[in-house]
Design a protein that fits this description.
This protein has helices at residues 15-35, 40-46, 52-73, 111-123, 149-157, 171-188, 218-227, 272-282, 296-304, 324-339, 346-358, and strands at 3-4, 76-85, 88-89, 91-97, 130-136, 140-146, 203-209, 231-237, 243-244, 246-248, 254-257, 267-268, 286-289, 309-310, 314-321. It has 359 residues and is an alpha/beta fold. It has a six-stranded mixed β-sheet with strand order 6-5-4-7-8-13, sandwiched between helices. Strands 1-2-15 form a three-stranded antiparallel β-sheet. The longest helix is centred in the first third of the chain and has 22 residues, at 52-73.
Length: 359
């Protein structure tokens, strides 16, 4: 059974029909321009040495080559050999803020969308870490820990503030939900997460938010996490000067900005002090994500220094890359297209001219 190691690149297959349309437009325009030059007999003599069939064949070779290249870039794989493996990792819960203040655009394209993109980058560098998710606003939505990072990405990819049952920014509830996930995972392992030398694997909550809490006692929740050995790393997203919160219509277009009951615009400012205190109380670190630098590399480096232990042995499938199978014919088709001439041989040109005169 064939699969693709990077199926997202299959969108490159759209290049092929785009090139077909471009060639169609080129041939039609060429025919129209030639028609404006003069009589049909004169045009036939002028173009007698050019083969339209060869032009079409060269176009077909190029389109076929581009199609095979696109397939090759998506990394086709085959094989599927089962292998029993153990990977070293830690337990990580990512808590991402889905409040409406995260729609502010002081970080391009918005605080929320940038956070999603940077988290996907972080996922691409993890291996063996069990990752759970907490999406929060006034309440929380959770996803159980897994090493299937593709499933993790899908969980929040299309999630938006409108999918949250209650508005607001409850940092305390997010921390408690993350703590519950990790303590449940620890007890489920049966040995409290202990390793052979008696040390426990690291358990971490990564909290990404603009930090504007709405009375959910986040510092108390941080103390509770610290008591069970959970570190909290916080990422404050947004500018320190503040930003207006946009309002959207049903089509997702900005219609204005949020106002309070007095008709004044609401400004979302980064609640940095709270985030710094949460990180300090749990032995974690605080990072600031501004428009110029998100800081995912710093987060990755901080997580890289934490203790990892072996997970339970599990069966994984290993696949062989077979990208060279479509790549070789793509190269040969490209060479054939480059070597083929649009012009007929001298003998065929005379025959074509003579046939035109006979008519």
């Amino acid at each position: 059974m064939m699969r693709f190691g990077d199926a997202r690149l299959l969108w490159l297959l759209l290049v092929a029909p785009a090139v077909v349309l471009a060639y169609g437009f080129y041939f039609r325009t060429r025919r129209r321009l030639l028609g404006r030059l003069g009589q049909a007999e004169m045009i036939r003599r002028m173009t007698a040495g050019v083969s339209v069939r060869r032009k079409v064949l060269r176009a077909a070779l190029l389109v076929a080559s581009l199609t095979l290249m696109a397939v090759s870039l998506a990394r086709p794989q085959a094989g599927g050999r089962a292998k029993l493996t153990r990977q070293r990792g830690m337990d990580l819960v990512v808590a991402l803020d889905f409040s409406k203040s995260m729609l502010a655009k002081d970080v391009y394209p918005s605080r929320l969308e940038r956070a999603k993109r940077e988290l996907e980058r972080l996922m691409d560098h993890l291996a063996g870490d069990r990752v759970g998710l907490v999406a929060f606003a006034g309440e929380t939505l959770t996803y159980p820990p897994t090493t299937d990072y593709s499933a993790v990405k899908l969980f929040w990819r299309d999630l938006s503030p409108w999918d949250m049952p209650v508005g607001g920014t409850a940092l305390g509830r997010a921390l408690r939900a993350g703590t519950e996930i990790l303590t449940r995972l620890r007890s489920k392992s049966g040995d409290g997460g202990a390793t052979a030398d008696g040390n426990s694997r690291s358990q971490v909550i990564l909290l990404l938010t603009d930090g504007e809490d709405t009375e959910s006692e986040p510092l108390e929740a941080a103390d509770d996490a610290s008591k069970v050995g959970i570190k909290v790393f916080t990422v404050g997203i947004g500018s320190r000067s503040g930003e207006l919160i946009p309002e959207f219509d049903e089509r997702g277009e900005v219609t204005g900005y949020v106002k309070d009951t007095d008709g004044k615009y609401v400004t979302s400012r980064l609640g940095e002090d709270t985030l710094v205190k949460i990180a300090q109380r749990t032995g974690g670190e605080y990072f600031h994500a501004d428009p110029r630098q998100f800081g995912v590399e710093q987060v990755e480096a901080a997580l890289g220094g934490l203790k990892r232990t072996e997970n339970e042995a599990r069966v994984v499938k290993e696949y062989d890359d077979i990208y060279e199978i479509p790549l070789l014919p793509a190269f040969l088709l490209l060479v054939a297209e480059a070597c083929m001439s649009d012009r007929l041989g001298a003998g065929r040109t005379r025959l074509a001219t003579g046939a035109g005169r006979a008519r």
